[in-house]
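Before anything else, study the sequence and fold tokens given here and see whether the fold suits the sequence. Record follows:
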Amino acid sequence: MKIPNTRISIAASTALISLLAMSRAMAQDVPTRLEACAALADDRERLSCYDRIARGAPVPEQERAAAAASPQPEPEQLAANAPASASGSADASYLSRYWELDPADKRGPFHFRPHRENYLVATYNDSPNTRPYRPFRAAGAAGGLSNAELKFQLGFKLKMLENPGALPFDLWFGYTQISYWQAENREASSPFRETNYQPEVMAVLPLDVDLLGLKLRFLNAGFVHESNGQGSLLSRSWNRSYLQAGFERGNFSLLARVWKRVNESAAEDDNPDIVNYMGRGDLVGTWRSNGHEVSVLSRYNFSTDKGALQVGWAFPLAPRLKGYLQYFTGYGHSLIDYNAYQRVFGLGVLVTY
């Protein structure tokens, strides 16, 4: 009895090994067969091909030949061709991701997001504005302003309410800080020459309207305070209510904003003529392609023929880090310089998200 049992065991083991080998071969062959099926142009043949895979039928010779002739995609190609979410696809709306306009981009309240650019640049100013600081320096004292300084901008925003009371808008809080550091001016103890603080609240209404070849994506009604935190003769501040529209077309976005200054009493107004130089609105156009970003900001007061132009170019360096070139010409490079004409060139890095 031992011999027959041994033979039965050997036969069973051989059959099991053969079955496992066939199963493994079929499992490895399925992806290749699926690709071959997908390559068939005729709908009936393609459906029949999928049916044979589901039944575990043998692979016809013509399918094997088609699969062998078809080049296998690299992992990078598979990742690039994989379906992306609405917020991550190549043609997704940048403004929607930035302001969470579309349902797929909504994240709910109390999530910190970037607000404006976050960058650090070394700048060269062709004509530093020394006038505001003269009363605080002794006659003939050393320690004037250096042409070179470090400028950095940090900003964030936070959605406080999403569709409050089922209304079709979101309420945001934003904060931006720009600092100007005379890092190499050791003669004056390397001071922070100026820091501008800009908190604001914004009600953002998502839209999707075709207008003059562009798509109107949102309207933003906001209130912003901006000051330099100084006292006495160095104090600069103003408050504005504004209305902003965001437009988009492909890789191009355009932000158009108009504002109205909130009037202050003559005794408390640090800069009563600031609108003459800073204007009553601004335009920001940005073009993005292959990791590059080119932006143009412009302000202009037609009544006084004064304004400003700032051009920026960000280019890839590393994930979430870009090189950044910036050029500014006009009035208002910083708040204390609102009435001083300057040309400033900067080079540094910009952090993305």
User: Anything to note?
Assistant: The chain has two domains: 2-81, 94-351. Confidence is low (pLDDT under 50) at residues 1-28, 73-90.
